[in-house]
Amino acid sequence: SVLKHSDGLNQISLGLQMGIDKATIVKLIDGLEKSGYVVRVSSETDRREKYLKATPRGLKFLETVIPQMKALEGEFLQPLSAEEKRVLLGAVPKLMIPKIIP
């Protein structure tokens, strides 16, 4: 869903936002591109840099999946109080730091 709300994002930035290493993000993007969900677009200023754009097929998929993900998240977090949810969701980025910064 990161790509849905951006105007093109490079692979490295996407990996950092998701807490995924470079090799893994490339494999994931290769699969998404092969499935027709994203395309790689060359930068106008640096031919080596590629930006990712969600295709119409990818956007349609996200429109279907995001509500389902939110519903599952709601069910998962339902037993927690508002304060517990706040603490948990605040801790998630800290759990991701070791994946971003080796």
Task: Give a structural overview.
The chain is mainly α and 102 residues long. The chain is built from 4 helices and 3 strands; from the N terminus they run βααββαα. The protein has helices spanning 11-18, 22-34, 56-77, 82-100; strands at residues 9-10, 38-42, 50-54. The relative contact order is 0.13.
Topology summary:
Elements: E1 9-10, H1 11-18, H2 22-34, E2 38-42, E3 50-54, H3 56-77, H4 82-100
Summed up, what is this model?
The protein is mostly helical and 102 residues long. It is built from four helices and three strands; from the N terminus they run E-H-H-E-E-H-H. It has one domain (3-100): Orthogonal Bundle (Arc Repressor Mutant, subunit A), CATH 1.10.10.
Compute the separation of the termini in Å.
25 Å
- Portion in helices: 55-70%
Strand content: 5-15%
Quote the average pLDDT.
Answer: 82
**Number of individual domains:** 1
Q: How would you name the CATH homologous superfamily? A: Winged helix-like DNA-binding domain superfamily/Winged helix DNA-binding domain
CATH architecture title: Orthogonal Bundle
Largest sheet strand order = 1-3-2
Keywords:
61% helix; 102 residues
